[in-house]
Amino acid sequence: MSETHFLSDRPTPSKTLVGVLCSTDQGQPLQLLFSADRLLDLGAVERILGGRISRSAGSPVTLNIGGQAASCASIANAPTLLDQALADQPMWHIETELGWVAMAQREIASHWPRTAVHVLTRPLASLTPELLENTAHITRQIENLTGRRVRKRLDETLEMPPLPHTATEIIRLKLDPDAGTNELAAAVETDASLAAQVVSWANSPYYAAPGQVASVADAVIRVLGYDMVINLALGLSLGKSVTPPKGRRGEPSFWTQSVYCAASMQALAQAIPPNHRPNVGLAYLSGLLFNFGQLVLTHVFPDQARDIERYQQVNPHVPSRYIDRHLLSLEREQLSAELLESWRLPEAVCDALRYQHQPTVNTENSRYSKLLFVATRLLAAHGRVSARPGDISDALLDELGLTRSVLDSTLTQVLGGAANLDSMARDLDA
């Protein structure tokens, strides 16, 4: 008698099937099966096989569920390597076109020709972030990865391009409480491309400026304000210091993600009651730089970045930070935060990037990191950033002074300006 049945509750990660179809270097199909609470160790798989594998596409298998035919894209009719941890589970939870089902391992195994069981994975729970908050650990890992001692200036150790003069001057102005519009306009206008971008943004229909904005000073005074322009100019200058990586096919570009995240952070911050509201300009800058770690990673560690991309292809269920921890023993967000800190960017922005995936971490600046957590999860659910969608707890919203209705209205506002935001991103991608 079949034990197969539809699930009424959420699937259990340790029983949830993740299937990846690959090709060996001889061109033979190979299916890898493991559970959703684990990371597929590509290095371990390739050591077992004695050669490289690459992700490939195949046809889904049709399952019989209580007399109903249901297509299942998670499995294929191909020789299979099965992870030991999943092999120890007699019942598996499987996603089909009709919904989630529980099916006995012995029933589903009849859909492929042969199976070998090996240790292919490591638990995601073993890739914990605690050590990543230790600066000495981060320094040690950077030294291990670069083969060089961390110097006084981290950008020199990482062999990053020199900080643009304009960015250096804008950082100086941010630290000067007496700096004004004329000094900011003069600093931005030393970079003609940056000045043109600031003026272009001020003229965007997204900001609904009355009349034509003709200069950086005009953008400051009439449309964006000093705080917005100084953070916008700084974010654009830093982002342009390194060529953005090409994203995976179907994913939004680096600048598309940055522009949407910045707009969302600005809108969310403005929606928070004034007595709890974080600095809107710093929230905007945190959003604009939220994936700066991707720039740093691909520039400083190109070989490791390629390995991370290969791991991501066979671990579609896993956020990139777990793969970073597995291969680098640190996260790209930690790396970028350390670098921006060495450049004397505001501590609030550095902490926002550093803890953006850890909403339970409480620091003096945790409003920014928690707001960034909310913004990226909102946008991920609509494909505007490459982060994985995730739950946003009511407790977190209460702590920030936000509500579900505010999230909905913010998302409507941001997505309503999609044509203008996309245009702004295309200008930066050009």
DSSP helical segment count: 21
Secondary-structure class: alpha+beta
Overall tally of domains: 2
User: In CATH's first tier, which class of the largest domain applies?
Assistant: Mainly Alpha
What topology, given as strand order, has the largest sheet?
5-2-3-8-11
How many strands in all? 12
CATH superfamily of the largest domain: Hypothetical protein af1432
Anisotropy-based shape? elongated
Any idea what the CATH architecture of the largest domain is? Orthogonal Bundle
Organism: Litorivicinus lipolyticus
Protein name: HDOD domain-containing protein
Pfam families: HDOD
InterPro entries: HDOD, RNase_Y/CdgJ, UCP036888_HDGYP-like
Structure description:
The chain is an alpha+beta fold and 430 residues long. It has two domains: 5-126, Alpha-Beta Complex (YbaK protein); 130-161 and 242-429, Hypothetical protein af1432 (Orthogonal Bundle), CATH 1.10.3210. It has 21 helices and twelve strands. The strands form four sheets. A five-stranded mixed beta sheet has the order 5-2-3-8-11. The protein has a three-stranded antiparallel beta sheet with strand order 1-10-9. A two-stranded antiparallel sheet has the order 4-12. The longest helix is centred in the middle third of the chain and has 18 residues, at 254-271. It starts with a strand and ends with a helix. The mean pLDDT is 88.
